[in-house]
Amino acid sequence: MARRELRDDQWNKIKDLLPGKVSDPGRSAMDNRLFMDAILWIARTGAHWRELPEHFGAWNSVFQRYNRWSKAGVWERLFQALSDDPDFEYVMIDSTIVRAHQHSAGAKGGLKKRKPLAVQKAD
Question: Of 27, 33, 28, whose CA–CA distance to 10 is shortest?
Answer without folding.
Answer: 33
